[in-house]
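Model: You mentioned two targets. I'll fold them one after the other.
Researcher: Yes, keep them separate.
Model: Target one:
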Amino acid sequence: MDSPSLAEIKRHAASGDKAAMTALAKRFLLGQGGAPRDAAPLLSSAAAKGSGEAAGIIAVLIAIGARTAPDWTPALKYLQQSAEAEWPEAQSQLRFLAQDRELAAAAERADAPPDIWGRLRRNIEIENWIAPAQNRMHSERPHIRIFERFFSAAECRWMIERARPRIVPARVYDRATARSSLDPARSNSAAAFDIVETDVVLLLLRARIAASVGISPPFLEETNILHYEVGQEFRRHFDFLDPAEGDMPREIAAKGQRISTFLVYLNDEFDGAETEFPAIDWRFKGAQGDALFFRNVDASGAPDRSTLHAGLAPTRGEKWLLSQWIRDRLPQPDR
């Protein structure tokens, strides 16, 4: 069955259909057919009509700080509202985030008490989720730090399952066209988490990353989950934006330089597939949950070419990796 057109969605939303209002708001958040700022009233109206999905998206927008400073307390209250409206994704998030695992298990039973979602919400210890992690220095140049057990096994599984249905062939920047394109240099797959695909669990994990490297979460780009099957690779490359290439000077001026990279290794049931840094003749294969942080620029902010690295191919099994790029300035607000 064909997806409804934007005109059809707008027509149904104008009539007060909560599903259409939510669908239209999601389009607006992605800049499709309207401005992101126009999504908020639609979501508020849809949530008031009982849309669990709309309440769940509001939770994300509040946690991001889309209009004001991020605030976990009202974000979690909207997540509770979403769960009480029987949106499965919100229910899964509350069960996952709660500290009391017996209480979380009780929420899955058919005879769960009606106040279970509020009890789960109140059982979430935000400070435990976002506390900065310890690390150790591996190399001064390139500047590389290792975080052991940065994610729990459960957090790793959560991110893999969120990404699994949405992975597509990964792309690279094409200097000739100034666009992303498929390239033999990168044969792995990836799933990007835009504002519509993001959930509160991911936002808490991003907040932990930000706290651990000493920056604010808005400096983080969209999170990507990378997937490598046997033989798939990402050949040697840099993560910084090269001011000598294509329209990169304009990109850097508008959105800032990609100053660092944070990688979390989500599984370890594979052989090979190390992250290689040829300048220091070093390969790293993290255990499940381990993380690698490296700076892409030097102390002056200039691209550091000693950061040349590659994602080598697995020889057995499949590799899952969270990739988080970090900029040196906040994105420009929507006009």
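Model: Target two:
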Amino acid sequence: MHHKVKGIVIKESPYGENGKLLTVLTELDGVLLVKAKGARSILASNLKSVQLFACSNMLLYQKNTSYTLVDAELIDDFYALRDSIDSFALASYCCEVAGSVAVRGADNSSNLQLLLNTLYAVSRGMISVKFAKAVFEFRLACILGFTPEISECAGCGSPLETKKAGFLDIEDGVMLCAACKESPEAAGRMIPVSPSVYDALRYISGAKSGRIFSFLIDENALDELAKLSEAYLHLRLDKKYKTLDFLKTII
């Protein structure tokens, strides 16, 4: 049976004499393992489509749970990500995380689109690696259903929009004002949120997918956002990522 998918190669390994085993994050089928025969040959007709980070419309031959690449129409190879170790490490990390949260047989289009938007912006030099990582992590947490409630203090109910500052309880996904964050229940889980970071959180969680990187933030606030985004997402993923360890040695 033939099967058409849109997907991105998030991992590759040798297969047979000159083939590859591709790990492909797809729009509607989760993560698939795809055999690409002859893909390591420089004469391969689908050479660009079977490279790491390549996004393509793929025609697969499915037999039971096994998939073999028949043909592929390249959408973007994001080849510029290989120009620097920073961008390559960031792309590898984002691919690993996006693949780890994909659900087989479910709609993963938001997850895939976030990954593609991130790789596009970084490969075109539109944003820094640190900025891309922070936005990717927080937006992914929102896509997974963990958008924090930040409009008001979870303790006393006072609106935080006018103050635009407070403390994020990263475990419960709620904001607290300065007075309420002193409660014993909240101790050790609070991350301070400055006005700039507060604005960034609201923007990232609510912006259209193609506009998530279209905001400005100064370097100090970006450092705050980067720490918060990583802590908030990875508390929920509860998994070790080797690509994250490598990325952090660079940035």
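Researcher: Noted. Anything on target two?
Model: The two ends are 45 Å apart (CA to CA).
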